[in-house]
Design a protein that fits this description.
The complex is a heterodimer of chains A (379) and B (148). With 379 residues, chain A is α+β, with helices and mostly antiparallel strands. Chain A has 11 helices and 7 strands. In chain A, the strands form 2 sheets. Chain A has a 5-stranded mixed sheet with strand order 2-4-5-7-6. Chain A starts with 10 loop residues before the first helix and ends in a 6-residue tail after the last strand. The relative contact order of chain A is 0.07. Chain B is an alpha/beta fold. Chain B has 6 helices and 5 strands; from the N terminus they run βαβαβαβαβαα. The radius of gyration of chain B is 14 Å and the shape is globular. The two termini of chain B are 17 Å apart. The chains are: A alpha+beta (379), B alpha/beta (148). Chains A and B meet through helix 6 and helix 7 of A and helix 1 of B.
């Protein structure tokens, strides 16, 4: 049916029909594809009717039918193909001079077969792509689920261990209390142990609640310098007991950030306590605040208020440094740390849109830096 | 706990746990049976104690039973156990753990030790320890017996 030697009058139609897939496909959406397809079909049918030449059939009909199949499915595509063939049939039937009816039937039947073949192939391709996409989505969802389970599992293992031991001690002492031949002193001691262990469990639960606490706490404009000085002053005496001095080097300009003062102070306190505990033989904890501009990017969004806490302690080993922010990861002895301090701090800083980094050289010391987005640079 | 079925006097047990309260409790419970109980604060200390006992010229031949926590700073219970088995320690070992997952359980079984899931009752601890110390029992028999 493809009469390649088309008359001159048809060229514009053919030219219009050809670039359609490349130029317009981007603008074709689910919403406008149907009117578009119908419009093209009517246009092509009109062209056929006026000219009686079938070149439009292969060029212009295939486009709307393909689009219809792609976006609306096989049934829609097949209907369009039927409609198009009917139009073609009507056109050639009413044309003068009329070709023999057998020729018309042969041409249109062939055209219908070709169009239906295109519809079928496109439909197969479409459903194949759909299936692929669905499978990928399911795989991604499963991965995400597995990841969540992994985190929950780690947390559960941590909780089981942290609470299991004191629970066991409480249960054991309760059992001991029930035994015969107990001296008053030992009964007293058992009772005191039970009380102590209960307090320990309560502390763990409180930390856990901190860990999973709701974000979006009330934020105000605070000066990081003030918070740093306050935290340092609060811990100075505690630090002195182990021979540590806390030194603050404030920034030359006020470091204003939008933050929850109590939470940021908790972060700083955690970091300072860690620094002090890393130096059991004494040393200096340096606190430094500064305004930092991210290199290469202009604009206020890339400025940070930075507080670094630097100690001269034993440092963190290569294998541990990736895990310092993991819940329940600790190198301290039982009762000294729950392993939640840094992970809580990490959560708080992330909530504020900032980040917390750690650098350490084993044997020489560790440096934790808290970076919070700076308030608009008006000062 | 009267009328022990066999002689426990002079049986030596070493308890290793980084948690002092836990260690004290286990020790107290075991002392009531007339066992000689020693304490270690960490895996390293446990290893040091067992090895120096074996090497020393004391009139004893080490510990009859080791009880250790699984999760300790430094060497974990399993690490200690592996090292012990490498140094051909054949005595019974009990691992206390709050979170006995499949990997730990299979590793513990491979190293011929007994898992004691926390929280456990003192009665079950005593039952297990006494069963392990019973001299007439073959090692293989115990493995077919539930831990508590």
């Amino acid at each position: 049916m493809s009469q390649l030697a088309a008359p001159r009058s048809l060229r514009p139609v053919a030219k219009k029909a050809f670039p359609l897939p490349q130029k317009l496909t981007r603008r074709i959406t689910r919403v406008n594809v149907v009117p578009l397809a119908v419009g093209f079909t009517l246009l092509a049918a009109l062209g056929d009717y006026l000219t009686g030449v079938e070149i439009t059939f292969t060029l212009a009909y295939l486009c709307p039918i393909s689009l219809g199949t792609w976006f609306r499915g096989r049934g829609f595509g097949a209907s369009l193909a039927g409609l198009a063939t009917a139009c073609a049939f009507a056109t050639s039937f009413s044309a003068t001079p009329r070709q023999s009816i057998l020729t018309i039937l042969w041409n249109d039947g062939g055209a219908l077969g070709l169009l239906l073949l295109a519809v079928w192939m496109l439909d197969r391709l479409r459903s194949y792509l759909n299936r692929e996409q669905a499978e990928r989505r399911i795989a991604v969802e499963q991965l995400r689920h597995a990841d969540r389970l992994n985190v929950i599992g780690k947390l559960a293992a941590g909780v089981a261990h942290e609470l299991g031991t004191p629970l066991n001690v409480v249960a054991g002492h309760a059992e001991l209390l029930g035994l015969a031949r107990r001296t008053p002193e030992s009964i007293d001691e058992s009772a005191r142990t039970i009380l102590r262990q209960t307090k320990r469990m309560a502390a763990i639960i409180r930390h856990l609640l901190d860990f999973g606490r709701e974000s979006g706490s009330e934020k105000t404009t605070v000066n990081l310098d003030d918070l740093t000085v306050a935290a340092a002053r609060m811990l100075a005496n505690t630090a002195l007991k182990t021979g540590c001095t806390v030194v603050v080097a404030p920034s030359s300009v006020p470091v204003l950030v939008l933050a929850n003062a109590a939470e940021i102070e908790q972060v700083l306190t955690n970091l300072i306590i860690n620094a002090v505990q890393a130096m059991p033989d004494g040393g200096v904890v340096r606190l430094r605040t500064a305004v930092e501009h991210a290199p290469g990017v202009a604009g206020s969004g890339s400025s940070f208020g930075c507080v670094s806490v630097v100690d001269q302690g034993s440092g963190i080993s290569e294998s541990n440094i990736a895990r310092v922010f993991d819940p329940f990861f600790t190198t301290k002895g039982v009762g000294e740390g729950t392993g939640l301090g840094l992970s809580v701090s990490y959560g708080i800083v992330s909530d504020h849109g900032g980040r917390i980094d750690v650098e350490s050289s084993p044997g020489r010391g560790t440096s934790f830096s808290v970076r919070l987005p700076l308030l608009a640079e008006t000062e | 706990m009267k009328g022990e079925p066999f002689e426990l006097q002079g049986t030596r047990v070493l308890v290793a746990d980084d948690d002092a309260a836990m260690r004290r409790m286990v020790t107290t419970a075991l002392c009531r049976h007339g066992l000689e109980v020693y304490e270690a604060e960490s895996g390293e200390e446990l290893l040091w104690a067992t090895q120096s006992m074996v090497l020393s010229a004391w009139p004893w031949d080490g510990f009859d039973l080791l009880i250790t926590d699984l999760r300790m700073p430094g060497l974990s219970g399993l690490d200690v156990l592996r090292k012990l088995r490498e140094s051909s320690f054949t005595g019974p070992v009990v691992l206390m753990t709050a979170f006995p997952d499949a990997a730990v359980a299979s590793e513990a079984a491979r190293l011929r030790s007994w898992l004691l899931p926390k929280p456990f009752s003192l009665a079950s601890l005593s039952t297990l320890v006494l069963a392990l110390l019973e001299p007439s029992l073959d090692d293989r028999d115990l493995h077919h017996r539930p831990a508590n």
